[in-house]
Design a protein that fits this description.
180 residues; Rossmann fold; six-stranded mixed beta sheet; globular; binds inosinic acid; binds magnesium ion
Length: 180
């Protein structure tokens, strides 16, 4: 069973649900009904968070996705970023909200911000479920953050280790044997 490899649940389903509602409320208040908001989910880690979050945003939105890969191992990012899947629609003059699973070194989000700003959008803001501020290597603005967490590798609710554990409904730390 998947649960056999869980050491500790760091953030429960209930805590996530409450936080997602709160973030949805904030986002709904900050953007106007007349603004064309494009919610850009970063595949694959953000999909579970994004699918819950957008149902708490009480505004008309469009969804789009990007997939990026940071060259490096599964637990350490190297800083070089490559676009695996780009947006389908033009974002010029539109308001863009990037939705990420976690901001760690900040290198991925920095790349995405620079890349999206170059397309002349009306605005770009960032929303992440998790933030590991102690790991930051570059300065990036996180406009909406669910939870700040310590420097521990976490899985679940979209986040993976070697593509596993994304379907856990909570955020957890793995037992050492899970890495063997
Ligand atoms: P950054 O570029 O270092 O900020 O890394 C961002 C990406 O690294 C995230 O989108 C995740 O895919 C991955 N990542 C960073 N920390 C974790 C973690 O604790 N668990 C799972 N993936 C992580
Ligand atoms: Mg990942």
């Amino acid at each position: 069973m998947l649960e056999n490899y869980i050491q500790e649940i760091l953030i429960s389903e209930e805590e996530i649900t409450n936080k997602v509602k709160e973030l949805g409320r904030q986002i709904s208040n900050d953007y106007g009904d007349d603004q064309q908001l494009i919610v850009v989910g970063i595949l694959k880690g953000a999909i579970i968070f994004l699918s819950d979050l957008v149902r708490e945003i009480k505004l008309p939105i469009a969804l789009d996705f990007m997939a990026v890969s940071s060259y490096g191992s599964s637990t350490e990012s190297s800083g070089a970023v490559r676009i695996l899947k780009d947006l389908e629609r033009d974002v010029e003059n539109k308001h863009v909200l990037i939705v990420e699973d976690i901001v760690d070194t900040g290198l991925t989000l920095k790349y995405l911000l620079d890349n999206l700003w170059s397309r002349k959008p009306a605005s770009v803001k960032t929303c992440t479920l998790l933030d590991k501020p102690s790991r930051r290597l570059v300065d990036v603005t996180v406009d909406y953050n669910g939870f700040s967490i310590p420097d521990k590798f976490v899985v679940g609710y979209g986040l993976d280790f070697a593509e596993n554990y994304r379907n856990l409904p909570y955020i957890a730390i793995l037992k050492p044997e899970a890495y063997e």
